[in-house]
């Protein structure tokens, strides 16, 4: 039997006896220019399927001459997805990838044994006022893929399957659902969907995945007579048939999940691993800072600074 993160003694759950196993209200964190709200990991759940990190960025107004400046930093044992509703972010990494992340597109960076990247506002963006609104997720890699070579893939929004009808527009970001499969290569069974619902429209949750959740980005939805507002994540019991209905203002949801892992993951700073030893080795490699011959390299176009290893 696969490991159930809800049964981990360090990840207690509530007393719900209906289809909703857990409700998560994200914690607010300040990253400098605006606030982010973190749903995963949480005291109630470390993961939903392979998803181990889930941050909402904004919505926020960014003024002229201001911007995002996340200096080069490392990752191991995970893949990152930055999915934007509004705004843009310029991505650079140690593989030489250099491009802007636009709304509706997928930028899938697989860290594997180690990668370094930065996320900044472009020079053009800084010349004007603009809005930023999006979601950043980390997808943990299964044991057999933890040490794969790092990679980066970009898929424009027009290359992703789009399902429309009955008041719904549903884009499949990653994985498979509703008989469709996204072109993004993944390392475990999963699904990740962006669903826009008109007022009163309903959407069933995919029922062919072991672990499933939904995050309300805007508006509200009702499930089993309960109403859930923007900023809440619901995690559902395996196997239950679940349908969500948009409230009077409509709703925008992210549906996510997939197979659970055989054991928990350790998280320290930007590192995810199946053992503490793997994290210690990565910490020492970043501390040494041998950018030419070591495990980590800085992005070729952004190699003048980096985030140092935290003391904690």
- The strand count comes to 23
> How much strand content do the residues show?
over 45%
Largest sheet: 10 strands, antiparallel
* Helix and strand element order: EEEEEEEEEEEEEEEEEEEEEEEH
Short description:
With 312 residues, the protein is mostly beta strands. It has one helix at 276-288, and strands at residues 20-24, 27-30, 35-40, 51-62, 69-75, 78-86, 89-93, 98-101, 106-110, 115-120, 130-140, 151-155, 162-165, 168-177, 180-181, 190-197, 202-204, 211-223, 226-229, 233-236, 243-258, 266-268, 271-273.
Q: What's the arrangement of secondary structure elements?
A:
Layout: E1 20-24, E2 27-30, E3 35-40, E4 51-62, E5 69-75, E6 78-86, E7 89-93, E8 98-101, E9 106-110, E10 115-120, E11 130-140, E12 151-155, E13 162-165, E14 168-177, E15 180-181, E16 190-197, E17 202-204, E18 211-223, E19 226-229, E20 233-236, E21 243-258, E22 266-268, E23 271-273, H1 276-288
Antiparallel strand pairs: 1-20, 2-3, 3-4, 4-11, 5-10, 6-9, 6-11, 7-8, 7-10, 9-12, 13-14, 14-15, 14-16, 16-21, 17-21, 18-19, 18-20, 18-21, 22-23
Structural write-up:
With 312 residues, this protein is mainly beta.
List keywords for this structure.
mainly beta, seven-stranded antiparallel sheet, 312 residues, globular, 1 helix
